[in-house]
Design brief:
By secondary structure, the chain is largely without helices or strands. It has one domain. Helices cover about 10% and strands about 10% of the residues. It has a two-stranded antiparallel sheet with strand order 1-2.
Length: about 80
């Protein structure tokens, strides 16, 4: 069984998984990396385009807004 391997997408530049081979660059993880850069629903910290294995992107932690019960807060004297 042979899987065809495609060159990296331009947004893959700088990732640790990119390896040069025969004058082209390929991804070690995905055989068709451009599908991971297709437009998707927003994921925490990314604006529409993302690759789950990208090492060159900073992944922002999702903001957590906690509801504070005013009765409990008054008892804690915050």
């Amino acid at each position: 069984m042979h899987t065809e391997i495609y060159p990296i997408h331009e947004k893959c530049e700088g990732c640790e998984h990119v390896k040069p081979e025969g004058g082209q660059k390929f991804c070690e993880v995905y055989s068709k990396p451009e599908i991971w850069w297709a437009e998707r629903k927003l994921v925490a910290g990314h604006k529409g385009y993302w690759c789950p294995k990208a090492t060159h992107l900073e992944k922002a932690a999702p903001e957590i807004h906690k509801m504070l019960n005013p009765i409990k807060a008054s008892k804690r004297r915050l």
